[in-house]
Specification:
about 425 residues; 9 helices; Heat Shock Protein 90; elongated
């Protein structure tokens, strides 16, 4: 394994090295600029010696009497030489004061015994090396401090990477821990939401296939037994009707399974979206099964945007479900409420327990004891909910508003936007 392999595969190492490298470049750049500035300063002092300003001075004896008063000016000297002052008295006389160089610490008993020689420490303390050492210490502290922060960030990314890998290998139940409010946390939430949708869809398809295989087996078995019992004889009218009923049940089941699959696949084309008169559609379906239609205070037409054949299928499934379980008349009410069109299909059957009102919309789920009833394969209400979802609507089961026994299914759909009418042009005179 080459040396570059860990850095190419580990994001936290690359981020950390980028921070350390940036600090190192900054340190070298500042040190270089500091050194250039010091060289320029020394060069300027060599070409144009600095002449310090003069200062007033007074020399007194031990008794406090004034001996000499004048102005003193320090003269420039070479490094390592003593200091020299020129003193000009008030009478104009010039005096010279010379001072010996300073004795380094550690020599002749001065300073700390055994202390380091100043000339030895000058290389590390004089600019720009002293500043470079300071920047180096700061850079090392920053490099050590940012490592756990960067590592904590990349650990979350690695957890997301492992989860995506497990999800791709087929573990649809894997989820990513959601911590914080930053971009990584948002990515984790989006992954969990997508994984939840995919898992639900796959489970729905598996359930659909499992239940479909079971439901298909029943009519096929009955048809096979009927064909064996015939033994080449002419079937009786009752036997022929039974075979035809099983074939119709099989055809209905296949049709509903295919429609449910197309509705689950949102990209599938299920028809042309157009303006549909919901009142007219409800009147046709009510006439087909002899149900009562009540439009109340609704206008003559109540239009929604949707696929006409799907909306017709939804109304038909609701009415057929009511006819299957009702012992009396069936009422379909269409009205407008808060910008939506609502269809209420109410029957006089045994009703639906409150705990089962959501489950009856699951594919192939039927109330206890309902599987023995004639007709129905357990997909009708599931298709109604799928069709409502395709049209941005909802459907639910409730009690009858009048308190009588039975159930009432409510289908709510958004109304189609009103089309502005063009102003009429007056006829020419």
């Amino acid at each position: 394994m080459s040396l570059s392999t860990p850095f190419s595969r580990r994001l936290y190492l690359r981020i950390w090295l980028a921070v350390v490298g940036g600090i190192a470049v900054l340190t070298l750049t500042v040190g270089w600029a500091w050194r250039i500035a010091e060289e320029q300063k020394e060069k300027a002092q060599t070409t144009q010696p600095f002449v310090p300003p003069s200062r007033e001075m007074a020399l007194r004896d031990p008794a406090g009497n004034l001996v000499l008063r004048g102005s003193a000016t320090r003269q420039p000297t070479e490094p390592g030489e003593g200091a020299e002052f020129h003193i000009e008295s008030e009478s104009g006389q010039i005096f010279t004061l010379q001072m010996a160089p300073r004795t380094p610490r550690g020599e002749h008993g001065g300073g700390r015994p055994g202390g380091p020689n100043q000339s030895d420490a000058a290389f590390w303390t004089r600019p720009p090396f002293g500043f470079l050492w300071l920047l180096g210490i700061v850079g090392l502290a920053v490099a050590v401090g940012v490592y756990p922060i960067i590592r904590r960030l990349t650990l979350r990314l690695e957890a997301l990477q492992r989860s995506v890998q497990k999800f791709g290998e087929g573990d649809l139940s894997v989820r990513v821990p959601e911590h914080g409010q930053d971009e990584v946390a948002d990515l984790a939430r989006q992954f969990n939401a997508a994984a939840e949708r995919v898992e639900t869809l796959v489970k729905s398809h598996k359930s659909l296939l499992a239940n479909a295989s079971h439901e298909l087996r029943s009519p096929l078995t009955r048809i096979r037994m009927g064909m064996e019992l015939m033994s080449g004889q002419q079937p009786s009218p009752a036997f022929r009707a039974e075979i035809l009923r099983n074939i119709a049940e099989l055809d209905q089941l296949v049709d509903e399974i295919l429609l449910a699959s197309r509705l689950d696949a949102h990209e599938a084309d299920v028809g042309t979206v157009e303006r549909v008169d919901l009142v007219g559609l409800a009147a046709e379906e009510c006439a087909r099964i002899d149900a009562d239609l009540d439009v109340g205070a609704s206008p003559d037409s109540l239009e929604v945007l949707g696929v006409a054949k799907l909306l017709r299928r939804a109304l038909r499934n609701l009415l057929e479900n009511a006819r299957r379980y009702s012992t009396g008349e069936i009422t379909l009410v269409v009205h407008r409420r808060q910008g939506r069109a609502e269809v209420h299909v109410c029957d006089h059957g045994p009703g639906v327990p409150a705990a089962q009102r959501e489950r009856i919309f699951e594919p192939f789920y039927r109330l206890p004891g309902a599987s023995e009833r004639a007709g129905g394969v357990g997909l009708g209400l599931a298709l109604v909910r799928s069709i409502a979802g395709r049209h941005k609507g909802t459907v639910h089961c409730a009690d009858r508003p009048d308190g009588a026994s039975g159930a009432c299914f409510v289908l709510a759909l958004p109304l189609a936007p009103t089309v502005p009418t063009a102003p009429s042009t007056p006829a020419p005179l």
